[in-house]
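Quick one:
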Amino acid sequence: MRKLTFTVLTSIIMVVGAAAANAQEGDGSAGQRLFQQRCGTCHQIATPRNGIGPNLQGVVGRAAGSVEGFNYSPSLRNSGITWGPETLETFLVNPGAMVRGTRMTQRFNKADERDAIIKFLATR
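Output:
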């Protein structure tokens, strides 16, 4: 009986823990944290100020190379890309393969991290 009770309690704890983790993922906190860790050195999201990279406020739906005051590479400025989840996904995997001559070199190898960052950006 003790073993059964222990097994049931362990299962309940695991389910509650997984639900809490999923709730955190759903609220964008994972994407925000990843953005700050992986992108925040070069890109701003809280302010329209450009840094090493252009600010990313409203990036989803925006034409690539269009933030005023930022010195883009000619290849990105003339790429004809409009940023959306699919184009951001491709770009984040390998920016140089998508846009030869871009100055962005940071790659994001983990699909779940790319997805979380893109979802976060879509809310800003």
